[in-house]
C-alpha cells in the first residue's frame, strides 16, 4: 500500500513537470485578476507573420502593467470600461464597443476602471515564434 502511494506521488510529480514543460514558450504568468484565452492563431500571407486573437478578462480593478508586443494590436472592448496608458501620454478610457490600435513595440498598460468585470478581444498581427508579450 505504501509503495503504491509513493509510485502515485512520483507519477503526479513527473506529470505536472511535463505539463509545465509543454506550455507554449510565449505563455507568461498572468497578473492577479487577469485571464487570457487564445481564440485564434493563423498564419498570414506575409512570411513569418501570424494573427493571434485573445480574449482578455479583467476583474474589477485588475491591471496588466506596462508591456509590448512584437507587432500591431487592435483592442476591442467587449464589456466594461478599460483604461489604456501609453508612456508620456494621458490615459485613454474605452467602454463596450470601442476599439484602439496599438503600434508594434509600443509600451502600454491596461486596467479595469469599472466596478464590474471587463473584457477585450485583442487581435495581434505579429512576428511568428516571438513571445507575444514582453513585460517592461
Automatic annotation (TrEMBL):
Protein name listed in UniProt: Cupin
Keywords on record: Signal
Domain Cupin type-1 per the UniProt entry, residue ranges: 42-134
UniProt signal peptide: 1-21
SMART domains in the cross-refs: Cupin_1
Annotated Pfam families: Cupin_2
Record organism: Microvirga vignae
Amino acid at each position: 500500500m505504501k509503495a503504491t502511494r509513493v509510485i502515485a506521488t512520483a507519477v503526479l510529480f513527473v506529470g505536472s513537470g511535463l505539463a509545465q514543460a509543454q506550455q507554449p514558450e510565449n505563455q507568461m504568468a498572468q497578473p492577479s485578476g487577469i485571464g487570457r484565452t487564445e481564440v485564434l492563431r493563423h498564419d498570414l500571407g506575409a512570411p513569418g507573420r501570424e494573427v493571434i486573437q485573445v480574449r482578455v478578462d479583467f476583474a474589477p480593478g485588475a491591471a496588466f502593467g506596462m508591456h509590448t508586443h512584437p507587432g500591431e494590436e487592435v483592442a476591442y472592448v467587449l464589456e466594461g470600461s478599460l483604461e489604456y496608458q501609453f508612456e508620456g501620454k494621458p490615459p485613454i478610457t474605452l467602454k463596450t464597443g470601442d476599439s484602439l490600435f496599438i503600434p508594434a513595440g509600443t509600451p502600454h498598460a491596461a486596467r479595469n476602471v469599472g466596478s464590474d468585470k471587463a473584457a477585450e478581444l485583442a487581435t495581434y498581427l505579429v512576428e511568428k515564434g516571438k513571445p507575444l508579450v514582453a513585460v517592461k
